[in-house]
Amino acid sequence: xxAGPGPQGQPPRTDxxxxxxxxxxxxxxxxxxxxxxxxxxLDDPIARKALDRYLDAYMxxxxxxxxxxxxxxxxxxxxxxxxxxxxxxxxxxDVQERILQRxxxxxxxxxxxxxxxxxxxxxxxxxxxxxxxxxxxVTRDMIELLGEESWEELAGRIW
Length: 159
What we know:
Number of strands: 0
Structural class: mainly alpha
Oligomer: single chain
Helix content: 55-70%
């Protein structure tokens, strides 16, 4: 009795199709049954090595981009501070350019120290010593160019 005709061109329906509590057959394994490493091919040592190399290069590029952004943001800020101070103190364009060039050099050296430290080429003592030398050098050069009071005011605007 439970069989009836199906739509045109399809097999007849059976009671079995309408039983409560029955579940459809599983066509594929569920997400808990699948090993993601196997699906991605990471169980293959060559594929894993290739992915590791790609991820290392990707992360290095991201870090370099972030470092470049940090470097350029400081220079943009310093440039604006120098320009504003230059207007207030009536500094010539040449003097403003010399200040900016000196700060750009110091900033480049500062970030080179960061990169060397991150690579394990410098220990924390060496990092501190090199940064102090940069600060002392910049301070000496700027006092020579602007005078101590003027440099302290400009430095306060930059940092």
